[in-house]
Description:
It is built from six helices and two strands. By secondary structure, the chain is mainly alpha-helical.
Amino acid sequence: MPKGVFPRSLEHCRNISIALRGRKLTIQTRQKLSIIASARKLSEEQKTNIGDALRGEKHWHWKGGVTGVIYSLRKTREYRHWRDAVLKRDGYRCRKCGSTKRRLDTHHIFPFTEYPELRFVVGNGITLCVRCHKKYGTEVCQITFSEV
């Protein structure tokens, strides 16, 4: 094989990729790679540039801005704090059946979309397991605000 830099065909690159696929690295090699990776420090500006480079229309999964406002709101830090506060207040158990074993959902007593002023009010939330949420989700809305 010739020494130095030389152009590689796409087929040659695929063959190398296939040959190296599944190869286990030795502990020493992994340690060397770890040292190299940890030596790379990115500035805040570089991190911002990387983030901006793959945001919105520039991202390969972009579908024309179809994500709704409500979905975006549910991904905010404020929503996560509200959810954690409701779960903590209810002792991490379903308010309907008392289960702690199933996955727990937080349910808005007054609907999220219809009462924007109550979206992040802890008193407007109730903890339900997935089964009870499916079964009683709309019925729970009948609970008065003061009962929670």
